[in-house]
Amino acid sequence: MKKHALIAGVSGIIGRHLAEHLVLNGSWEVSGLSRYAENLPTGVNSITANLMDRTGLTSTLKSIKPTHIFIATWSRQATEEENCKVNGEMVDNLMAAVGGNDIRHVALVTGLKHYLGPFENYAKAKPVTPFREEQPRLPFPNFYYVQEDVVYAAAERQGFTWSVHRPHTLIGYAVGNAMNMAATLAAYAVICKETGKPFVFPGSKQQYEGVVDITDGRIIAKHLEWAATHTNGFNEAFNVVNGDVFRWNWLWPQIAAHFGLEVAKHQGMPTPLEDYMADAGPIWDRIVAKFNLKKVPIDKIASWWHTDLDLGRELESFASMTKSYDLGFKSYQNSLNSFTHAFDRLRQERYIP
To answer: Are residues 86 and 139 in the same domain?
Structure first.
């Protein structure tokens, strides 16, 4: 029987890569749910709806009969208490809107803040690395935990299997995503090249020298499909990262070389991009005009705040993939290629020169 995927958050890094992967597979019908139907992958049935509007969502999805649901979206709120309320409600509304006997599996994407804590209590618990799935929940409110519990309860009521996927920093092709380090670093490099600003690593000494990993949009797409269609993936929570580790003091010169830049000496302390790129708006507009790029403002390309948060950490952060490998998932992704592939797609689509 042909499988029908409903992807909530299809316009983001994860949703886009998953949609492209499933369409290419050929054995899936793919429906993509987003608030704005803009620049979606070819072959996706676009559905426009708001996950916070339960009545409207139910009406919109009444004729959609997915066999598999992939939840790869969230809404950032001012406090973690609000995050728990809003993001838990979004998942609950979706589960109610697609209730029925057709659903076989629901996959929920969260992240490594499962181990590190939410923004308000970030890294206060100092978890041991590599992060492993059996580590207990932290004693702080966390909307990931709320979303998990909503999926678990729906699975109990409706009889479907589930999987939870915890990626690290997501790298891939997407525009307008709130946490897109690849696009942020690409815009940063382009501005440095245009203005002559030093291309300095913006993060902490610990991040520059310590071990870290990332999650490519293509690897999590493969992981989501695997867990949703193989019994070893049913009713399990998984870390999902590329499978290699690196240090930024090695990777940063590789990124610089990709853009034809020299690496500035790291000063041993962060150089936050929110400050360093404070004048980026008009500079970016000039670059767009000069190279005839798509007219997208810099705040839709780059998320300075998130890259500052990610690269400014003072602790080691990487995850184990042992559980996935032991249960049969064998894919791997080269992390340098994750960045260069995303840069090349942004260039191909005329978002960067």
So the answer is: yes
User: Which one is catalytic: 3, 115, 144, 222?
Assistant: 144
Total domains in the fold of the chain: 2
pLDDT digits (tens, 9 = 90+) for 233-248: 999 999 999 999 999 9
Q: pLDDT band at 40, cuts 50/70/90?
A: confident
- What values do phi and psi take at 142, rounded to 5? -150, 120
Residues 189, 199 contacting (CB under 8 angstroms): yes
Neighbour-count burial for 242-278, b at 16+ CB within 10 Å, e otherwise: bbeebebeebbeebbebbebebeebeeebbbbeebbe
Same domain? 163 vs 180: no
Percent of the chain, pLDDT > 90? 88
Tell me: do 74 and 106 sit in the same domain.
yes
**Residue 330 bears catalytic tag:** no
CA 305 to chain centre: 15
Assess whether 83 and 142 both reside in one domain.
yes
On whether the CB atoms of residues 198 and 264 are closer than 8 A, the answer is yes
CATH code: domain of residue 95? 3.40.50.720
Q: What pTM was computed for the model?
A: 0.95
113 is catalytic: yes
Q: Which domain holds residue 341?
A: 173-213+245-317+335-348
Strands (DSSP E) found in the chain: 3-8, 28-34, 45-48, 68-71, 105-109, 161-167, 170-171, 211-212, 215-216, 236-240, 246-247
Task: Select which of 113, 173, 208, 351 is catalytic.
Answer: 113
Burial (CB count <10 Å: 0-12, 13-18, 19+), residue 32:
buried
**Last residue of a domain, which of 167, 201, 234?**
167
